[in-house]
Amino acid sequence: PANSTEVWVDEGLTFAVGLPDPWDLPNGTRFAGLLINGTAQREFRVDKPMTLRAQYAEVYYWAVVETPANKTAGWMPKGTVLKFPDIINFGNGTRLVGPSVREVAVDRPVKVVVTYAKRQYYMKIEGVVEWEGWADAGAVVRLNATVVGGVEYTPAEVVTATSPGVYRPLFYAAYRTAVRDVLGVPNPLATVKLCGAAAQAGLDGSAVVAAYTRELCQPAVEAFPISPYTAAGAAAVATAAALALRKRKK
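^ thats the sequence. predicted structure below, dont judge the formating
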């Protein structure tokens, strides 16, 4: 396949074909499966002029492939199609997506360098909100405010995808309420607690308690069942009734 030669041989001698099999050329091409005039014969008795044709059944090319996962090199059969996956999953919560090359046909010696557009991490967000999925490395995972059990939770920090794993972001929790007694009268002596924080109710019974937390919190209200306003009103009624009774007795 590369050249031809001619030589005089004495009649009656045996001519041996010394071509290598496989035959590696310096340009990254390999021939294998040598056939002489279509046969596996290597020696021929010279009793007349003859032409010997050497053919190789197989052709290979040297291929070098580099990806973020590995680097390989070797002989590839001519016509081989090298295909590269859309996703390389390393199995540790990290993957690459978007290959620069999806397939290459080996029809000559080749060197292929495959890069990927994005690195992604598998993240789990727990605590106040629950979410899990793949996020681009360096991307900010957007968290929304939410209300659970009457408590309003607002994200207090930015979650950036820097590595795979579990994230428990900080939230600002606020609970607003108006405390009333059994008769519906505002109770200014009530105490409202949330996430370890406490707030005293105002004169109108309203209270706002807030704290930073990474978990859901259950609000609690501590108060006497009777508001001081109700108690004062009852005392005034009792005093008026006593005075009226005294007057009737006189």
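The chain is about 10% helix and 45% strand.
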